[in-house]
Each structure stands twice: as C-alpha cells, then as structure tokens.
C-alpha cells in the first residue's frame, strides 16, 4: 500500500508540474511583460546600440568600398542590412507605442495602460530575440562582395563614342559583318587617330547589349605584341586566372574556356603585325556552310584545333548536341590593311576615316 501511495504521489506531482508548466509559467511570463516592460525596453536599447548600430555601420562602410571598386554585393549581406533596417524601424515604432502608453487619459493601472504595457514588454522581448539572431547571422557572413563578372561591365564600356552619319554607317557595316555567316574575321583599318578604337569599343558594347554574343573580349595588341600580355587581357575579361605557364599552355587554357561558350566575339585592337591566333588561344569558327571548326587563319602556324568543324554531311553524327551552332568572330583593327588580309585572313575590311 505504501508503494501505491508513493506512486500516486509521484503521478500527482507530475500532473501538477504539467499544470504549472502550461498555466502558471505562461501567466508569469505575461505578467512579466507588464511589470518589467521598462526594463525590457532599456535592455533593447542596449542591444541596439551594441549589436545592431555599430555592425550596420561597418557593413555599410564595406559596401561603399566594394561599390567604388565596381564589385557585386553578396545577397546575404544585402539581406542582413535589410533585416537590420527593419529592426530599427520596429524599434522606432516601439518608442511611439511607449509614448502612447505613458500618456493616457487613464490611470496607471487602468486596463488600457496595462494592455499597452503588456504589448510593449512582449514586443521588446521579441525584438531582442530578433537582434540576437541577426547578430549571430552576421558572424556567419564571410564575404561582403565579389568582383563583377567582366562580361557585365562591357555594356557600360566608356567608349567615348559620338554618333554622326558617317560613323553610324561604318558601325552598321561592322555589325552587319558580325552577323554574316560568310565572314569570321573582320578588319577595321585607317590612319592613327581616326577613331578605330572608339568605334570597335562601341561595337563591343552594342554587341553585348543586343545579346549578339555570349562572350565579348577586348585586347590591345599594339606595336611588338606581347603574347602573354594579350592572353592576360583576354583571360581577365573571362574571369580566368592564368598561371605563369608557357604561351602554349596558357593558350590551351584560354581555348578550353572559350569553347565553353557558343557565341564569341574577340576584338584585337591596334595590331601592328601578324599574330598567330592559335598561340593566343583564340578559336576561329568557319560558318560558311553552317558548320564550325577551330582553324588557324591564313599563314598561321600550329596544329589544327579540333572540335568545331566536321563536314556538313557528318556533323550531326560527330558533334555533341549544340556544337553545330558555335560561332567565333574576330574583329581586328590595324593601320595596315595588308596585315589584316595577308596575315590575319580577314575577308571583310572596313576603312575608317574617309
């Protein structure tokens, strides 16, 4: 019987504990909102000043630096900043509610004031939990920003282009050549200072804005072209890092990267002498019959690059799906038309400055 009595007592205590858990504790918590609402608001102010404001200022400063460097802000950073601003807005609303609760036409212990105090205490507690969560979340963010995709910058190229009839005519001629299936290498030639660079920069910008090409790369060749320097310029516009390898190894990496794209425009500006596109790592597509290949232009040396051409009859059997639509166009500027035709295999040369 004693055992039964002890067991009954334990069951009774368990039941009482549950009743306390589901009734007394919640009631105590609700009363706490009323009794300690001022304390909760003071604690909230401390958390705002210690955890939100200084952290938000630091994040905003980092964002300003990143934006000056033309970098993209990480999505979780923007979300964190938005959440912080929402917390500050809620805090501002809470201050307004506090004034309403303290002002009142009722006595301190009226039902209206008790309800207002309860709401203030409850909201302050909830907001403190949100602050703690946001503070912890900030510690998990390791990257504020990352460099923009270089291809995104092309549409905002600072070309310095001024439109007038004769220049628009040349621009249209180049754009038409880029969309032609009969031409892969286009040359732009003319005396120094006539605006060749400005014109092809505008071509690059419009080609990207109009979505004519998936990838547009621009590299300056200049006198005595440095192969590695040209390769680096191309790699930078692809977001690709080239190690200090030999020219052919770098060319292979560039070629592999470019072959991942379907529509490519490569612009080589201010070429003073012929240069081997194979050594640069530039694929040259032949689109005259609807087929594609990686091929060297006239007078170039090096092995033929495989992957972009088979005969029209067999291309469907030998090429992976999608490869039959790959296009690579090369746009080159030079003072010497002979370099464009004889050394670079240009089939369409456009004179600028006439």
TrEMBL record:
<dbReference type="InterPro" id="IPR050905">
    <property type="entry name" value="Plant_NBS-LRR"/>
</dbReference>
<dbReference type="InterPro" id="IPR027417">
    <property type="entry name" value="P-loop_NTPase"/>
</dbReference>
<feature type="domain" description="NB-ARC">
    <location>
        <begin position="168"/>
        <end position="298"/>
    </location>
</feature>
<dbReference type="GO" id="GO:0043531">
    <property type="term" value="F:ADP binding"/>
</dbReference>
<dbReference type="InterPro" id="IPR002182">
    <property type="entry name" value="NB-ARC"/>
</dbReference>
<dbReference type="Pfam" id="PF00931">
    <property type="entry name" value="NB-ARC"/>
</dbReference>
<protein>
    <submittedName>
        <fullName>Disease resistance protein</fullName>
    </submittedName>
</protein>
<keyword id="KW-0611">Plant defense</keyword>
